[in-house]
Amino acid sequence: MASFRARHASLAQALGNLSLLVSAGQLQSRNYAGNPYPFRASSHFIYLAGQRGPGAYFLLHQHHAHLFLPETTMDDLIWSGPGEEWGPIADLTGCQLHPLAQLATFIAEIDPQNLAVIPHPDLRSNQVLAELVGRYPSLEDERDRLGAQALLNLRLYADADAQSELQMACDLTVEAHLAALNALPRAQSESDIAAAMARVITQAGGTFSFIPIITTCGERLHQVRLGNLLQADRLLLVDVGAETASGWGGDVTNTWPVSGRYSSSQALIYNLVLDVHRQVRAELRPGLEYKALHSMAHKLFTEGLAQLGILRGGTVEEYLEQNVASLFFPHGIGHLLGLDPHDMEDLGDLAGYAPGRRRDPRFGWSSLRLDRQLDEGMVVTVEPGLYFIPELWEAPQFKELAHKYLDRERLQEFSDVHGVRIERDYLITPVGHELLTPDMPTTVEEIEKYIAERKG
Amino acid sequence: MASFRARHASLAQALGNLSLLVSAGQLQSRNYAGNPYPFRASSHFIYLAGQRGPGAYFLLHQHHAHLFLPETTMDDLIWSGPGEEWGPIADLTGCQLHPLAQLATFIAEIDPQNLAVIPHPDLRSNQVLAELVGRYPSLEDERDRLGAQALLNLRLYADADAQSELQMACDLTVEAHLAALNALPRAQSESDIAAAMARVITQAGGTFSFIPIITTCGERLHQVRLGNLLQADRLLLVDVGAETASGWGGDVTNTWPVSGRYSSSQALIYNLVLDVHRQVRAELRPGLEYKALHSMAHKLFTEGLAQLGILRGGTVEEYLEQNVASLFFPHGIGHLLGLDPHDMEDLGDLAGYAPGRRRDPRFGWSSLRLDRQLDEGMVVTVEPGLYFIPELWEAPQFKELAHKYLDRERLQEFSDVHGVRIERDYLITPVGHELLTPDMPTTVEEIEKYIAERKG
């Protein structure tokens, strides 16, 4: 990975006098310390030194990259075996390697005013960091914010290795989705679908990059319980990403008919979402403001819902003015994708929002996670969705709006839709964009044909 | 679950004036707060109120059981759907239900000297608890220790519902192991085996109860990397537990030959481990000191290794005196099993060790996690194992011992063994014990026959 060296060099240039310390993090207890969750190094650490740890640290100091690793104890030897050899790690990462015990000495020699530390989102990992550097790392601290800014300015734009890692993650994600679709004709429950995907991802040495959303209640945007049987009249919404062993992940959503055939109401909504996806996708290119895509989707949904007779009693301008479509599209059009499903969300909106920009407070719009001008190398999702959430129409803050503009009788005819989302991953190229997740049936016709062929 | 009420009543009696607060815990960040690890409530909480949360609390106060649950916000509604209805939860758990917002008022009315809190092993979850009660919960605090003691005295002995939950967990664990064994003839890698098990467990709505150990390097006791291809001359050690949706888990280890046939050296060691397992198992009954089983296994291994000519240059008495067999059997003979793989290890040795007892400092013996007299209702594992760890024989503290008593030439003949462990789960009954994990091929003959039948 030549990229590690190039990343260190670019980072060093951006940091100037500042040194930067990045923690891989500590094991996190599931039941008790000896039974942790599967360890994953922090994404910032992976970006600079690959998947290793726990207890590993990356330090960039005076334009040199250092990696500190815990030494193998007798207990490690018995319980986990000898650690990796250091020579190949040094070759691979371009770092100078040191035993962890020497980190304190290194830190003592750095002027504290020049030491930036990336905060770790896990409190204990951050506390161990705090004990090392004598203060709590925090984005409120100017040094740490400058350090994070320098790092995110790199991570925003996928270099060649990042692109290749993301492509592998997207390929595995597609493979898992196809396994789900292959399993669909014989599946009895949401868990059966999860099992088919878990198998493919585990076999490849990967893991789910976020808790899988596999649900016949697509109107619950992040419904992660897998309790439902697959009823024939339902749509199954599958929002699943695979993370490869090296830590990069994809993020794809499909919405398939359990029976193999979309009902006419399901097809109407599916096609509207797909049409919005395609129109939004067509705009992806350097120079475009990502937030404009959200506005565009919102407007297209407004027009589409009006055409379907779901909105009534006003004009399209009025619906837009009143933000009515957000009742059906209450999330953002997409987000950054990289080592994290919502890339760099551990830094709050520092990565997702260009300097000086803030979240739009309006319902729905406030969930938009990305408001930057697109540029070559950025990787983003596009994921329009429509959801029918009756509780929302009855909620005190929306009741009046819903009463005024929603046609409840017409809505009844869409009661078998629940939720539809279509999500794909795109790399911004010099001339436009590239779909990282091809080879996935996407139209109503493609999906129905694919399922029919597997029903046998 | 009638047991919840009975548990509350027994706990109330044991606590006397003391009130007890138990946290389910908070979501733990994997990459960032919005991308958490799959949530699992703390085992103490599950024992008293079932799998719910995050952010839920159980309070036993003046002989009444209270359950505090976060109220569904508009965001929850959109992202996760409406929460469970409270009526059925109250019926099921025997608790009075309250919105979480009322917990602070309840706590304010309890004399702080009478409030025991179970510490949560996750630092942030424990910090949220600390903010609630105005101090850090800790087993160093006498109140908290008394509360933990009262609770563990219940959890040590499985009641009817606990037994039934554990039986389901053990059944699923066995099912996963059989899926692995079915997959073995066609598997190419450790990951293939993991995938077969993940599929079965996921399909049942469960999860791995600890990070799976599936390795052709069985001499690394808790080797969790899944990087190896399955070479025909190797043994595959599979130490995997399945946790059901309700939070209870099994814990089983099998050691199978990749080729379908044990080599003569592998069979010799496998049979020695199996013989020790059987002799230890035969002793399981109320009144027995569990540590005596470790001594027994250690003695049997010593005799067996001497008979095999692996130990030489001394008498069995001398090997025992010098603790030589621990070089091949460096872990404990087993542990408590329940909601946790090592049940209640979050309480340190408070549960595993009877009052006044401490770990034996000798190598190997210090890893024994249970030193109590067995009694009806206890659930324990038995897991003798033998490992060939050349690095251990060269380690400074063991070099002399190894040189004196190990026959290196003879050891060469066992170089294809690496590690063998055979682990099963047992319930202590009034008259002896019951195997919770039957229906698993266990002898060399049974295993070879099982694999041969699946090779087709």
Nutshell version of this structure?
The first copy, chain A, contains 16 helices and 15 strands.
Describe this structure in words.
2 copies of one chain form a homodimer. With 456 residues, chain A is of the alpha+beta class. Helix content of chain A is 39%, strand content 13%. Chain A has 16 helices and 15 strands. Chain A has helices spanning 2-15, 43-49, 74-79, 86-93, 103-108, 123-133, 142-155, 160-183, 190-203, 264-283, 290-307, 316-322, 390-394, 399-405, 408-412, 444-455, and strands at 19-23, 57-61, 64-69, 96-99, 115-117, 207-208, 213-215, 235-240, 242-243, 252-257, 379-382, 385-387, 419-421, 424-428, 433-435. The first copy, chain A, has a 5-stranded mixed beta sheet. Chain A has a 3-stranded antiparallel beta sheet with strand order 7-8-10, with helices on one face. A 3-stranded antiparallel beta sheet of chain A has the order 11-14-15. Chain A is globular, with a radius of gyration of 24 Å. The two termini of chain A are 45 Å apart. At the A-B interface, α3, α6 and α9 of A face α3, α6 and α9 of B.
